[in-house]
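User: I'm putting together notes for a lab meeting next week and I want to include a structural view of one of the chains we've been expressing. I don't have a solved structure, so I'd like a prediction I can at least talk through. The sequence is below, exactly as it appears in our construct file.
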Amino acid sequence: MDIIGHPGRDYAAVRKNLEGNDWKAAFTFFQWAGKQRGYTHSFRQYHCVIAVLGKMRRFNAAWALISEMKKGGRNGGGESMVSQQTLLIMIRRYSAVHDVDKAIKTFYAYKRFNLHVGVHEFHDLLSALCRYKNVKEAEVLLKCNKDVYPLTTKSFNIILNGWCNVICSPREGRRVWWEMCNRGIPRDVISYSTIITCYSKCNETREVIKIFNELKALRVNPDIRIYNGVIHAFCKSGLEKEARELMKSMKEKGIHPTAITYNSMIMPLCKKGKTLDAFKLFDEMLQRRLLPTVQTYHAFFRASRTSQEALSILQKMSKMGCCLNHDTYTMLIRKFCRWDEFENVWKLWNEMISNGLDPDRSSYVALVNGLLLNGKLEEAYKYHVEMKSKGLLPEPEIEQTLQAWMAAKQTTEQSMVNSGTKCIDGWDPLSSHKAFRNVPYEMLQKLMDGVVNVWRRANPSF
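Assistant: Thanks for the context. Below is the predicted structure for the 462-residue chain, given as structure tokens.
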């Protein structure tokens, strides 16, 4: 099999191939391995493949594996391998595609597999629904089942977090916040942390201060997350001095700042262009022996205005041993495309693959978009096709534009064939149309103008 390759190929190379975006090859290998004598799949392997199938919306194939697990594996005859975690994977996958009905039906299937169903499992269902923005449905489900699963601080915190930090709706968060009060459900430190984080994200600094003062009046001891949220709100509102004083106050209470605390200050400073102040905090982190996170570097990358700045930050990141993830590569590819430095784009693209990170949808969209906006239509189309071949959905506008370009190109080539005109290597119909009188130049010119106008409007950052 191609996925295994030549005899003697090392384990790391095989695993890298399996964990890539080629899920069909991975599934084929999984099925082939299960038929080998003396070998049986483990819980972890089943769960991994079920999660991948669910992600690719191959739910029937996923349920077929669960039925196989119920029989004790492919050979059968053993105890059921299905656990609460198995069905929770399916609940999360259904929630991700917003199929709430099937997520709920999967929850009620616990009993069919002789699995215990309690408050903990119900909370897992609510969390899965909220995680993928099905918060309204989760709230209805919570209240409809209040006689079976009593309303508690934890259950309301799940809904509160969904509205506040997933949907990011201060209005809905405020409604749930007061409903907890009206129902007599006590609000704990997690409740306060959730609502403060929401107000902080939405620049409602007055509400942050109000809730923070209320918390102190009730003698609820703030945790590190609450301090981080308030510090972040202060910095976003330009109250850096107050943020510093609050950081000093938390130290006096024995709560030591973490990398996330510093990120809460660095990120808004970078967004405002105060990179010198942000770098001072960065140096302070290092002095305190706090390792910057990938989010720390992302803040500086977003603030970078030249390739030299970005490369300098990248060098620091590598020196500190902080690994780049998909988001890092996507962000940098987008920036270098904007700066028309495709030598660095291809270096990053190849490095991403060599580091075991197969390009995901966001990576492809950033690359194709960048190539398109820089007039590199042949390459943009090539990677667009490659993206679709991996089962990744392209942006509708990108697909429409590239399809229109390909249709125009084919029409042009057919026109040249009909007229007996020979194509010269490197010929550009937009710049050399006088040499080829039968080329529909006006059509190509309008198309190219449309490409630029559409994508400049849709991508003002480019």
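A couple of points you could mention at the meeting. Confidence is low (pLDDT under 50) at residues 1-15, 424-448, 450-459. Residues 192 and 257 are 19 Å apart (CA to CA).

User: Perfect, that's what I needed.
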